[in-house]
Amino acid sequence: MVHHIIITTANKYVNGDEVIRYAGMHNYFAGTWYGVPIYVIGVLCASYHLCYGIWNFCIRWGITISERAQMKVQKFAFVMFIVVTLLGWSALVGFLIPKYSQTAPSYSAYTQSSV
To answer: pTM score, two decimals?
Structure first.
């Protein structure tokens, strides 16, 4: 996560680059062995945290009082977990497809400051 913050947010303030475009992220994921597994696990954890939090919120705040209502929200949260996870993973697949790889600048072009 720290690496992601450094190459996106901190790069904006240090080098003046607005954002890392598609080509930069494609080169980042294609050029590192650890980028894809960390992204996959991170999306899985974030979507679980979100969906479990919705289920837990409904129970703790008294929105779902009966066991039947809790089971319905639990099923909804599980389906939502699957959907959100697949959406996040599909974004990763989009970065891995070599859409602009022939004309894309290298990843190092986004990390070097232009003086």
So the answer is: 0.66
Per-residue pLDDT of the chain (115 residues), as tens digits, is: 566 666 666 767 777 666 556 666 666 677 777 778 888 999 999 999 999 999 999 999 999 999 999 999 999 999 999 999 999 999 888 777 766 555 555 555 555 555 4
Cα–Cα distances (Å) from 96 to 5, 14, 23, 74, 113, in that order, read 20, 27, 10, 33, 26
Q: How many CA atoms lie within 13 A of 67 on its CB side?
A: 0
DSSP, collapsed to helix, strand or coil, labels residue 35 as helix
Q: Of 23, 34, 1, whose CA–CA distance to 96 is shortest? A: 23
DSSP code, position 66 = S
Residue count of the chain: 115
Nearest to 90 by CA among 46, 37, 43, 50: 43
Sign of the CA dihedral with 19 first, then 29, 102, and 87 last: negative
Candidates 75, 43, 83, 74; CA nearest to 56 is 74
